[in-house]
Amino acid sequence: MNRILVTLLLVIWVMRALSQNQANNEKYVLVIHGGAGTILQQTMTREKEKAYKAVLEKALQAGYAKLQSGKTSIDAVQAAIRVMEDSPLYNAGKGAVFTHDGRNELDASIMDGGTRKAGAVAGVTIVKNPIDAARAVMEKSQHVMLVGKGAEAFAKEQRLVLVDPKYFYTRERSEGLQKAIEKEKVQLDHSANPQDHWPDSKFGTVGAVALDQEGNLAAGTSTGGMSNKRFGRVGDSPIIGAGTYANNETVAVSCTGWGEFFIRNIAAYDVSALMEYRNLTVKKAALAVIEKVGNMGGDGGLIALDKNGNMAMPFNTAGMYRGTVTKEGKIEVLIYK
Ligand code: ASP
Q1: E strands along the chain, which residues?
Q2: Could you say which of 205, 256, 317, 324 is catalytic?
Q3: d(Cα 180, Cα 286) in Å, to the nearest integer?
Q4: C-alpha distances in angstroms, 35 versus 141, 224, 316, 323?
Q5: 320: which strand partners?
Q6: Ligand 1 centroid to 28 CA: how many Å?
Q7: Which of 244, 285, 290, 331 fits as disulfide partner to 109, beta carbons 3.0 to 4.6 Å?
């Protein structure tokens, strides 16, 4: 009897070990995020949660379809980001947050890990899909980053879809700006901590990292930046090395969070550098970078996908909208810790 029991326990143990091993060995081809922040289950309705997840799923499907049909990781990144830009729920494209002056100034970047070519735009106000503009800069110009009016003139020349700035208006974001302004008025009198002046004004930046059938990595990020931003403020999202980075030898990374801290830590490139020079795994490197950002007082998260299809999605906020697709097409979307 005892022997039967021992054998049974042994079989269960081996099966569990095998299934865990399988889970750890899962290979991913596409990882996306929809921003990190104080996303609490208590303050989220079921309908809202469903709506956010539906967009993530749609974005993953769009990106995965590209990879399945043999398209490049750049195509997959762009397709996934476009879906999130077109949704009013995320802080990119339609649904972008407002500047202090009540405008929407959008930033985006994209990078090809094979050629290490990159493109970015910052402070654009009439480009429907800023990720398209970033890609056009990468492929159709001799530059890496174009800003403001110049970027818009280039987008026009490239025949990208342009919209009236009103297109980007959403009531939620407009109310978000009013709240941020109110809070700032109160807090400027009472607090010396700059962190208090920008509480939760950054939700829903979007990003994607992908690995195609040829083994090429790509990364992209798109955002409206931070609510109540002023003076042409630009965050990490359109800055190659800070918010976005891809290198076939190491990893593809897209960041989200308090951009100033990601710029000062050269966060996206740092994940790659830790892997290249210190031989860290993608999990360890990604976590180390988020810890650095946190130690400095910044908050946020990132997604990272290495050349072997291993991924990491660390964040130091309450939540981060995020999702993954495996090589076989298994989709998973998550919001909280
Ligand atoms: N990183 C973005 C910025 O600072 C904001 C965000 O990720 O939500 O512009």
Answers
A1: 28-37, 106-112, 118-124, 145-147, 206-211, 217-223, 244-246, 251-257, 300-306, 311-312, 319-326, 331-336
A2: 205
A3: 31
A4: 29, 11, 12, 11
A5: 36
A6: 25
A7: 244
Q: How many residues does the chain have?
A: 337
Pick from 91, 109, 226 the residue to mutate for probing ligand 1's pocket: most ligand atoms within 8 Å of its CB: 226
Three-state DSSP class for residue 7: helix
| Ligand 1 neighbourhood includes 93 CB (under 6 angstroms) | no
Tell me how far apart the alpha carbons of residues 292 and 297 are, in angstroms, rounded to a whole number: 9
Q: Does 223 contact ligand 1 (Cβ within 6 A)?
A: yes
The answer to whether the beta carbons of residues 91 and 203 sit under 8 Å apart is yes
Residues 307, 247: Cα–Cα separation, whole Å = 9
Active site residue 7: no
Cα gap 93→107, rounded to integer Å: 9
- pTM here is 0.91
Which tokens in the block code for residue 69?
Answer: 């049909």
pLDDT in tens, 122-149: 999 999 999 999 999 999 999 999 999 9
Residue 269 amino acid letter: Y
**Amino acid in position 113:** G
Residue 226: CB within 6 Å of ligand 1?
Answer: yes
CB of 237 shorter than 6 A to ligand 1: yes
**Contact indicator for 136, 143 with CB cutoff of 8 Å:** no
Question: Which pLDDT tens digit goes with each residue over 167-220?
Answer: 999 999 999 999 889 887 654 444 445 445 445 555 789 999 999 999 999 999
Only one residue has tokens 């959403």, namely: 170
